[in-house]
């Protein structure tokens, strides 16, 4: 069969190069997304996690600008206001623990100290202890966990037994015994910040085995992967493999578990202050305020409700944000 001069097989069956380059204007180019973009998109869709993150940012901002907030809306945290106290009963005048325009969250019984100022300064102390102790736990956990998982052998056995020992050790009792025998002023700092440093070291030291176990397990899995074997074959040394090849792949679980360990640190600091071995008086802390409110909760419940609500809201916000972050960074999530 012959083809006529006006008809060609190329024209009938195969599109020309010019035709292939012509694209329908309604079509949209498909853009690739990185893992960070995918995680951020998932996190933005989780309204509960975003709400928790917003509350966390507000609390951090309050802690940073605490002196300015006290100057504008409060009074010095250790200033007595006896004129706001009933001289007969020792309770705040007015309703809801003395809440008014001058005292936004009321005043403490007996001495009349401004609860708003003490809550704000307590947020500064609590978040400082929680974040820095979580950072210390993360650094120690990553170093020891990666070393145990990558080196293996007797090094892995020793580090694993140390982690088991610390996990089984009564952290709260040891913290009470240690903090109670240390002087209140150290390193040239006042009692508040000296005790804050002690709490950071104690809580951070006992918290690293939790992250260490996670990192160790992930490292055991990663060290057998192809990219690690390729790095070894190219002559890369162990430090480079650990920190340039494996650590970026451990960033997601490290970030998630660091976020989830912060609320635990908040509760630990509050418990130690509640038991009288945390931040020393007259410096404010949420746990210390709960301890002071025990003898007044029947007559002035707001004195206990306000610091308790702050602890609850802060811990809940971190847990919600941590859960959302874990779901966003999970490659198996839909």
UniProtKB/TrEMBL annotation:
One Pfam entry name: OppC_N
Transmembrane domains' residue ranges: 48-70, 129-153, 165-187, 193-211, 254-279, 299-322
UniProtKB keywords: Cell membrane, Membrane, Transmembrane, Transmembrane helix, Transport
Membrane topology type: Multi-pass membrane protein
InterPro entries (alphabetical): BP-dependent_transpt_permease, MetI-like, MetI-like_sf, OppC_N
Biological process, per Gene Ontology: transmembrane transport
Record region (Disordered): 1-28
Record's GO cellular component terms: plasma membrane
SUPFAM superfamilies found in the cross-reference section: MetI-like (SSF161098)
Cell compartments where the protein resides: Cell membrane
Highest taxon in the source lineage: Bacteria
Domain ABC transmembrane type-1 residues, every copy: 123-322
Family recorded in the similarity comment: Belongs to the binding-protein-dependent transport system permease family.
Name the UniProt record assigns to this protein: Peptide ABC transporter permease
Organism: Paractinoplanes toevensis
């Amino acid at each position: 069969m012959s083809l006529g001069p006006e008809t060609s097989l190329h024209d009938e069956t195969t599109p020309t190069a010019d035709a292939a380059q012509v694209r329908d204007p309604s079509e949209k180019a498909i853009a690739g997304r990185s893992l960070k973009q995918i995680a951020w998109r998932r996190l933005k869709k989780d309204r509960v996690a975003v709400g928790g993150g917003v509350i966390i940012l507000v609390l951090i901002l309050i802690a940073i600008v605490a002196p300015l907030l006290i100057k504008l809306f409060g009074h010095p945290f250790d200033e007595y206001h006896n004129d706001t106290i009933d001289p007969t009963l020792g309770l705040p005048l007015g309703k809801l623990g003395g809440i008014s325009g001058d005292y936004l969250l009321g005043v403490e019984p007996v001495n009349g100290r401004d609860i708003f100022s003490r809550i704000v300064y307590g947020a500064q102390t609590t978040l400082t202890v929680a974040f820095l102790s979580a950072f210390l736990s993360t650094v120690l956990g990553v170093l020891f966990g990666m070393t145990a998982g990558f080196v293996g052998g007797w090094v892995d056995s020793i580090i694993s037994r140390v982690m088991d020992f610390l996990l089984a050790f009564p952290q709260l009792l040891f913290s009470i015994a240690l903090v109670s025998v240390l002087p209140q002023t150290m390193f040239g700092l006042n009692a508040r910040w000296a005790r804050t440093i002690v709490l950071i070291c104690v809580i951070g030291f006992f918290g690293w085995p939790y992250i260490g176990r996670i990192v160790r397990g992930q490292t055991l899995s990663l060290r057998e992967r192809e990219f690690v074997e390729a790095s070894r074959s190219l002559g890369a040394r162990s430090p480079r493999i650990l920190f340039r090849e494996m650590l970026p792949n451990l960033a997601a679980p490290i970030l998630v578990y660091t976020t989830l360990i912060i609320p635990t640190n908040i509760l630990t600091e509050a418990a130690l202050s509640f038991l009288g071995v945390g931040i020393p008086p007259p410096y404010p802390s949420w746990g210390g305020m709960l301890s002071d409110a025990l003898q007044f909760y029947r007559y002035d419940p707001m004195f206990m409700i306000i610091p308790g609500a702050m602890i609850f809201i802060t811990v809940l916000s971190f847990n919600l944000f941590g859960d959302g972050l874990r779901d966003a960074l999970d490659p198996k999530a839909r």
